[in-house]
Amino acid sequence: MTNLSNTIFYLSILIWLLPPFRQYKTFFFSYFLVLGIADILVFFTTKFFEISSYDFYVIVSFCLFIALQEIEYLKKKKMMFIGLGLIVICLSFFRIEKNPYIFLIAFLHLMIIFRILYLFVMVAAEKQVINFFYLVLAFYEFTILLKFLNFLFPLNVEAQTYFYITTGFELLVGIFYTTFREDSRKLVYQLK
Question: Where are the domains of the chain?
């Protein structure tokens, strides 16, 4: 890695450690906690245990999806989520090409986007408000999805530039979620 890449990587780790503190005692706390510790765990597992980051990001992506579920729903569908979790964990230990991993990660992030948009629509319908907290989070997840899809279907953009632009945006999103919570009035637009 270059010095700029290292700086961005360590800055990203630092910034994404902060949102869980701001989101404490909210529905999104678990989601931001997983995001906050994911990069640190990936760093240590790849450096000290020589585990592929793709192996680990499959598990992280699944944990992010789980973190966006209601506790009651998880309890009701416990066996399904345990089964899916075991499948994801087993898949992460198979030594196969990286494309199936990336496809699975991209699929999980697509499911996360759908879940965030579902939550956005439910809040909009129930409270008659547009909460930009959800839209920024969906857009953030969309940038992650694009990063992984770029591995499967290379875009006609310079990879390093694309990485810096998307990572810079993701750092701004980390700062955004360190500042704002779901219940922040500045993010809510009343429809009626």
Answer: 3-190
